[in-house]
Design goal:
4-stranded antiparallel beta sheet; 2 helices
């Protein structure tokens, strides 16, 4: 009985020590703040590119450097500054989508900054087929033109 009591006491002491270690470790401060992590274009016409701007702020105390912005597919194109971003300053990442294929889409954009840290952005929407020709001629317009002559 004494062994069971000592084993239980030892386990409780070990668990308390481990919990204390977890509580005392401080989280790594976030140096990048994004206004939004995703954007839904809704319905967009086929063949017309769509664009969205993601705003990014340096909330750290050191210079922020966007090393790379990579998309999950060639139909999505990012534009961003390669200049260092001072603490407290903001910049933007402009993302374009070509809208060539009809149907729903979901594309990810991976932002790599300060060497090896990453954030993932997401754009979604649905591309609808546009008419192959312009609208048919309205016969009423022709009648109005004849009356006004």
């Amino acid at each position: 009985m004494k062994k069971i009591y000592l084993t239980t006491l030892f386990c409780c002491l070990l668990a308390a020590l481990q919990a204390q270690t977890i509580q005392t470790s401080s989280p790594v401060p976030e140096i990048v703040r994004l206004k939004e992590l995703s954007f839904d274009f809704g319905k967009i016409p086929q063949g017309r590119p769509a664009f969205h701007v993601f705003e990014i702020t340096n909330t750290g105390t050191e210079i922020l450097k966007l090393d790379n912005v990579q998309t999950s597919c060639g139909c999505t194109t990012p534009e961003w500054t390669r200049d260092p971003i001072a603490p407290g300053a903001s910049t933007s990442i402009r993302v374009g989508y070509s809208a060539a294929s009809e149907g729903p889409f979901s594309k990810s954009i991976t932002v790599t900054y300060n060497g090896n840290q990453t954030k993932t952005l997401l754009i979604t929407g649905t591309v609808y087929r546009t008419p192959a020709t312009s609208a048919p001629e309205n016969a009423s317009v022709s009648l109005l033109k004849l009356k006004n002559q």
